[in-house]
């Protein structure tokens, strides 16, 4: 029930109370006082942990005190200075009287200070919703979560694993292979340690390889991350390479989601209070209200590679005008006034080993305007220097980026090269026909140009002897394209991707081309997916060209959620004039309400032999398990796999079926079996914990807890929480639970009549724990094994009664659901009366 507070002092006299006829609630002459329900359900005074929302957007989870002003029908929230600071209220925009009202009391009267403001409280969801007009707020981008609400998490240790065993038997040999991908983590305060590696073995020969080992922390004040150890450069401007050292780089994830990636700023002018509608390719992507005068919209969400924006200003007097904003995007483009940087220094790493060659690299990108983004970079190493400068343009003809890199490399004391590399990129969504040229790039490098890691490889090769430096092939030209076309209606989609690369001092080129068509055809009440694709690949090492044609059909065998799907494919390969044809038929499906089980069977009709295989998987709360087997005339194969993780946290050790870098730890004591809504297959374990394996850092993540599957004697006091974690953090989400037997008490007065319907039930501390239902029945949860309860249906001493109770005990356990019948005595002089032994009846479970 949502409760509105039109004023903070007392009930608004202009709000017409809802009148109930208490005569309908009379039971044997006893009339229930229901005046407290005349204006919604009253809130009892006290402190509540609530979710604070502003204009429908979550702001924070915080403790709010509710106080009962004199004469008020309900307690109201105390909006103190700490809460007001979270509301993004533009104090300077308020009148002097409003500012004085907000600052004059400990509990501000927000509805009196700000016109059209409203405050509502949903008791069932513990949600305090505040509505404020846009003119009274400081501007914040959509998706903004204040850094003060980012959760740093708890101290924890994690281990994620992905293991498999593969065994194959042929006529010649039997081979058993083992693989384990391992990621260990340790979170201590703001610092996060990560180690990634692989353990592999074949027939008893084992090898461990370290992939990454680093210490990392974020720096919210400058929206950056510092990394110490083994890492990789970002590859935004220069080619990415591995290194061991230290890196400091901006982290776009700390920006609001609506300011990540590139989207232009929309600027215009409104004559009145107007609605601004922004359309892209016929799709409405934003509609907002602006005040008269110039306006600026800088929080459009990025939409792929763009498509020009149609902006329509709808005035209050019915008039309207429209204009177009060009929008084509490339990875180099940034929003106006946004910058991105990276700094890295240390030792270059090749093949997982330190090279001993020190380096420094720095890059900077800056959005100058809607049209121009400039960028530059420098890279220095032993015997190597390079510099890059470029610009990206957003034009009506598409997005274009052009940059040039100059480099000098000393391979040996006698071999010193200098050269340049020029790169041109283009992107465009053609309006009307929806042709998407997502990336088209051309790069030319002169004979003397070396990248940093190529120069290091050449230096090593020269040091080992026997290799001529001019004979080492280096890239000369590279052309790459990615084009897609929506044919509209029911005509399907076409795509084309490809690249051609040629080298200095090497004949031939490396060619990769893929093209395809896909569509969906109705087949009764089902849909048949079909597609045709073509691929060509030329290996520049062997000079062989391979062409591959593939026809595929896919159909679900029914319309149910777990319906099995049949897929058939026919493939033909051609290599240097020789062709071979093969086919595959497979059946896949899932079982269970949560699709925890999956299965597959496949028949491969190869050009030389036929094989058959089966597989199955199970997503348990603690791990992902899989197994497969296949056979043919020449081999037999079996495999087993398991993946998941474990988390050590302040509450113990919890297993998970998946584990990412940023995780949540759900704590719900006694709620074993309750499901995590945002984590497929995850359930509360016997210790009261479960893992949310993936959370988006610096974003608002909602975590829901479904009580179905938990014990009947446990209730959840809240079933949903929102959290915004730091990157790599393990955040604790505590869900309140009430455990104990469910008790149905039927209370009767001394004359045998039931206690009045709607009466309050209070415990020995005068805390309301329930209401009386029909026939004098009340349902209570989590009450002590024995005690005294007070029932009140009015203000006088004649309008209340008290009874004692004791729950039945069988052995050492109390039944999960019991029924009691008690006598409730009236005219209480202020002391607890001794009650006769209540009649106890077990309720069927």
Tell me what you see in this structure.
The chain is mostly beta strands. Among the domains are: about 1-140, Ubiquitin-like (UB roll) (Roll), CATH 3.10.20.410; about 150-205 and about 610-740, Sandwich (Immunoglobulin-like); about 265-325, Immunoglobulin-like (Sandwich), CATH 2.60.40.3110; about 740-840, Sandwich (Immunoglobulin-like), CATH 2.60.40. The chain is built from 4 helices and 57 strands. It has a 24-stranded antiparallel barrel. It has a 6-stranded mixed sheet with strand order 1-5-6-2-3-4, with no helix packed on it. A hairpin with a 5-residue loop joins β18 and β19. The relative contact order is 0.07.
Are there runs of 5+ residues with pLDDT below 50, and where? 7-18, 830-845
Shape: globular
Query: What is the number of strand segments?
Result: 57
Distance between the termini: 30 Å
Structural class: mainly beta
> What's the architecture of the domain at 150-203 and 609-738, going by CATH?
Sandwich
User: Into which percentage range does the β-strand content fall?
Assistant: over 45%
Q: What characterizes the major β-sheet?
A: 24 strands, antiparallel, barrel
Q: Counting H and I runs of at least 4 residues, what is the number of helices?
A: 4
Q: Can you tell me the CATH class of the domain at 150-203 and 609-738?
A: Mainly Beta
* Overall helicity: under 10%
Rg to the nearest angstrom? 35 Å
- CATH-level-4 superfamily name of the domain at 150-203 and 609-738: Outer membrane usher protein FimD, plug domain
CATH fold-level label of the domain at 150-203 and 609-738: Immunoglobulin-like
